[in-house]
Each structure stands twice: as C-alpha cells, then as structure tokens.
Amino acid sequence: MTDVTGAAADVLHTLFHSDQGGHEQVVLCQDRKSGLKAVIALHSTALGPALGGTRFYPYASEQEAVADALNLARGMSYKNAMAGLDHGGGKAVIIGDPERDKSEELLLAYGRFVASLGGRYVTACDVGTYVADMDVVARECRWTTGRSPENGGAGDSSVLTAFGVYQGMRASAAHLWGDPSLRGRKVGVAGVGKVGHHLVEHLLDEGAEVLITDVRPEAVERIAGRHPAVSRVADTDALIRTEGLDIYAPCALGGALNDDSVPVLTARIVCGAANNQLAHPGVEKDLADRGILYAPDYVVNAGGVIQVADELHGFDFERCRAKAAKIYDTTLAIFARAKEDGIPPAAAADRIAEQRMHEAALDPVH
Q1: What's the mean pLDDT when you consider all of the chain?
Q2: Which residues are catalytic, by number?
Q3: Among the record's GO biological process terms, what is one (predicted)?
Q4: Which of 99, 127, 151 delimits the end of a domain?
C-alpha cells in the first residue's frame, strides 16, 4: 500500500480537514503492473464490518477520488444503520475509465488489497462495476458480495435498490398527500441505468406518468423503446423545471440537490436512488423552506445493501424483499421524527442512525 502518485499530502489534507470526517481508516492502493490506483475508506465499524461498494470512475484527481470515497463511506455507515444491518460503512473507488482501464489483472490486484484488510471491509458493486467484476475480485478476496448466482452470490442488487426507492416514494406520497398510491402522479426520473430503469417499471406498473432523462442518449432510447408510455426530457435541468412535476427521482451521481437546482425544482417530493444527493450542508433546509419533502437518499436506496449483506449468510430473495419493503415504514418514521423535532427529514435520519451507532459503540458485546 503506497501513496497514490505523489499526492499523499493532498490526500491527508482531504482526510483530516474534510467536513465529512471521523473515518477510522483510509487505504491508498497502487499496483503499477496492472495500473490500479484505488482508495478504500472505512468510516465506522461500530456495528460490524464495513460494507459498501466499489466505484470505478475517471476522477479528475486523486484528491477528488479521496473526497468521494470519504463521503460515500460515511453515507454507507448511515445507510447500514438505518437499514438495521450489523455492518458499518465503507467504500472503495478505483481511479480510471472502466470502459478503457478495467482488466482482470487490475481487479485481481484490487481484490488482494481488500483481502489484506482481513474482513474489516466487505465490498460489492457500485457505479462502473458489475456482478462479473465481483466474481473476479472474489477470486482473491472472500469478503466480496454482489457475485453471480453461479459463483455463490445473489446477482444484480439494483432490482431491490429500485424496489426500496419505490417504497420510499410511496411513503412520501402517503405522508404528503395522505395516500401512498402513485397512480396519475407525474414522476421525473433522472438517470435510467442499473437502478433507474427498474424504478421506471415500478412506476409504470402503478399507473404513474413517467418522464425520463439521462446523459447517455442510448439509455433513454432503450427505455423508451421498451416502454413507449414514458416521455423523454432533454436534460435534468429541463426535467426539474417541468410544470406539474409531483416527484423528482435523482438516480445518477450525487450532488443533484444544490444551490442551482433547488430554487427551480417544481416537484413536491424528492425521492431517488442516487447517493449523496445533497450537495452540501444546508440544502436540506432549503428544500424544507420551499415545502419540498425530501426522502433521505441513504434510507430509500438501501435495498441493494440489504441484498448484499444477506448474501454473506446464504441469500434468500424473498427474505431480502421483505426487508426492503420495510423501507416504507422506516421512511414514514423519519418523517414523523422530523415533525416531532422540528427539523428536516435528512437531519432526523442522521439522528436515528447516529443513535444506533453510538449505542453499538458503547456495547462491548456487540
């Protein structure tokens, strides 16, 4: 484990001065032969081994990669706590273009780094990595989930991720409008990739009016070709400004809710699959001030982590689906806590998750 291309000083500055601090461990990984450059961040193991996916992305700099790993790992601690899992939070990012740089040799080298942590970190799929990639990583590391059924895994976790978001959306509708039904509601989905396209199917099945957009035109065309009832929108900016939009579902990368998007957002509810949707602290209050109900991302998108955690104990899809269905009740409980405490839902979710982690840290038997 070495410094990443001479950027150690910047990396350490990001780690120790980040507003997302408190991490237990950050590992910088480099394998010159395969070209691997990766960051593994462990935020907390209070509830158990850190669990979180591996993101493969062409970051502009090593410092940007570290910052993303830190934020994502922290989010996983809160997500796992709110999902009721006996896991802490961790995340890994591999620096590079997955279409160009991914190779079997690189994934095997990455697996060796994860294995060197001795089970403190359990990895899975994320943006830029897939079930087939986890099968390769697992050849070097037994602490790998998200594998194919042929290799003892549960397969694609995006199915239950989308199902959980759908349950969170129904809970949001019930809280705001007194009825969980989404029939006739106008829902805008930004990002129709691994998770987004499953969410679109849930919404169409219930009779919602669905609008879609994606930075990849081919993704939009694929969904529109399969489901002619959806409406295409040019881009996310046009989507969030759509008149009469009831629900906005950000399902791509993070930072979708920011100082530019929130003031022009027409939707009454935000509930989507993307991680780290709030671009910075304070955005949750901006949403509340505008009367927009925000379903905390790490709560509603926990279906996937519920699935991969179950894989460690012998995967059962129906058992996982039943757990993911409880995201509906968890989301309602967060809204109730937010109302009781007079705070935005994101702050209420944080309080509940922090309480569980704190209690676990005080319990020597845990």
Answers
A1: 93
A2: 91
A3: L-valine catabolic process
A4: 151
